[in-house]
Queue: 2 jobs
Job 1
Amino acid sequence: MTGPQPRACVTQIPAYVAGKPPAPRPDMTTYKLSSNENPFGPLPGVLEAAARAAEQMNRYPDMGSTALYAALSDKLGVATDELALATGSVALIYQLVQAFCEPGDEVVYAWRSFEAYPIGVTAAGARSVQVPVTADGRHDLDAMAAAVTERTRIVLVCTPNNPTGPAVSQRELDDFLAKVPSHVLVVVDEAYVEFVRMSDPVDGVATVRAHDNVVATRTFSKAYGLAGFRVGYAVGPAPLTGALRAVSLPFGVSGVAQAAALASLAAEAQLLERVDSLVAERDRVVRGLAEAGVVVPEAQGNFIWLATGDRTAELAAAADDLGIVVRPFAGDGARVSIGEVEANDRTIELGRTFSFGS
Ligand SMILES: *Cc1c(COP(=O)(O)O)cnc(C)c1O
């Protein structure tokens, strides 16, 4: 014990397992269905805006991200100080815990859910309280409300839930919020909000308006197809978003990312058409799997969940053989993103050919 020692919590941070890219194969096109990425490339205006912004790479970006804050404020009907931009909503999760938790404070969230949650919580020295999802992959909001203690500072509600798929309804969220003490921050992670097609969907912005203790987080990574550029944002009461901005890295969101996000908002109509086609593909995959006898939890994001338990590694290998890479969670199940039409055909093929029963 001679060299510098990191804080004890640092050694306990679980590793983030990124979705694998597919190995190229001479006999077929292979597809990456392991990171919930958007299979569509940039709309033309977006690439050009990003390229123009890249010409300024010798300059620091606009630290205030002024134009992007203004555009989001317009789109969402909130004041700019009710927003906090960050380098993806993963960064927002880190910042939330850093800003609101003392060491040992508790953060309640469903499990299995987004794998960045335990990482962000542990990194800040806070404690995870994981509440198991139901057998059909839903948040157990009653159990989550019951898990709130004196030490709870944050509850994370991931809707739709990554990786299992179901979303909570506004009614369920409202009932839950009525049970949570007002000093507990409730974060509604709406990374997949654009893909939700259900009755009574959550409206994160309206929910934020109705409560002083709710923040909604969204991202340009999924529906908007900008995962590589790292832009996400939180919407919430100004005192809460102000705390998030206070702990953010200066100049985090690059000029290229700001420009691409702005251009994507300007091309929103076409982007949302692409989202509609992904939703249609998702529903086709769910139907195709059901016809093969494989029932998956309600899929409200751009992915489906296969609860393969201790056969998950086997399923991932079978997917590899078909030229698609899925995201296995050892001993639990596999998440399969909705991608190109041919890739989705292979997901259905996987459902037909893998024997889930034994
Ligand atoms: C992908 C995802 C995010 C967003 O990640 P970025 O950091 O914005 O790329 C946030 N929450 C959940 C649940 C996700 O699946």
Job 2
Amino acid sequence: MKKLIYMDHAATTPLKKEVLDEMLPYMKDKFGNPSSIYSLGGQSKNAVEIAREKVANAINAKPREIFFTGGGSEADNWAIKGVAYANRNRGNHIITSKIEHHAVLHTCEYLEKQGFDVTYLDVDEYGLIDLEQLERSITDKTILISIMFANNEIGTIQPIKEIGRIAKEKGVYFHTDAVQAIGHIKIDVDELNIDLLTMAAHKFYGPKGIGALYIRQGVKIDPLISGGGQERNRRAGTENVPGIVGMGKAIELAYENFEEKNRRLTYLRNRLIEKIFEKIDYVRLNGHPTQRLPGNVNVCFEFIEGESLLLSLDMAGIAGSSGSACTSGSLEPSHVLLAIGLPHEIAHGSLRLTLGDSNTEEEIDYVVEKLVGIVARLREMSPLYEKVKEVK
Ligand SMILES: *Cc1c(COP(=O)(O)O)cnc(C)c1O
């Protein structure tokens, strides 16, 4: 079988060999519980603390402000529910956006049932929030603003520094889901005035099922998981030592040669977009033309179904996505594409290709060549396209 062309790095990334190598001893001989007092336990404890330092360094935080979780979804749930419950006496209003990941949106919807008020900010055609609408939405009941750093579907990067400044001025906590941004954007939580930040290792070539929440010292937050005293009494449960070690290594590698990697990804991304536009008609780019993640391409092909497109690509050995991993498989078009104003029928024809370390120029060209054939074949079957062709 020929090699798979993997272009779904926003869904997950392959584990780097160097990361696996650092994890393996903690799945074998170094299996001690970090809470145990004998040296086998101490070894695990040390490894966890070294990883914590690496994660903290990557975002200019203090190690004591990093709390390991079971992934990005848990960190999002914790940030929002934890702040909501701990600050109920100050207010019950939360501000987020319409294009957040479901880990944020569904958490907010859950809190609405518990008596919290949530404002879901609109976004413009590029997926950017309106800073004035944000400022106008803040009331004396507002306790939290949760806006993602970069969108997982369309790659749009939000004006995080301005949001942080507004939050600080108004005395409101600011949480950002930075799962897609880590490794692609230099993040300094002090410079950006971020109070809480979510990350997930499997989006930057680390293992799945491990993430972290950065919590600025002094932020009032309840635990999400109760039990033992791990993570300074804030997140109970025996630490996922191999996962944590892997996350530490992965984040260190993510910021090595970071400018060069981004330049390469941006070049490949632009080449892919340009070639698609050159060779296929009735196509539109979703997301911001420049203020977007280096590896993100999201386009809509009119007159075709995203699902059929993905299946045909799969048969050609190409892994892509129609939106987020969570919504593909459902018939509803993506909430993100609807929020940027696409009509249902066009949102259905979306394709997300997210590039990563392994992708090459040859792969880009091969994928475009395949796309040209697949899109033409699928459009042959579309009565709407036949009509448009006649008019032309
Ligand atoms: C993948 C992702 C998540 C969820 O992370 P998990 O580790 O899969 O729970 C949350 N937010 C964004 C933006 C993501 O891309």
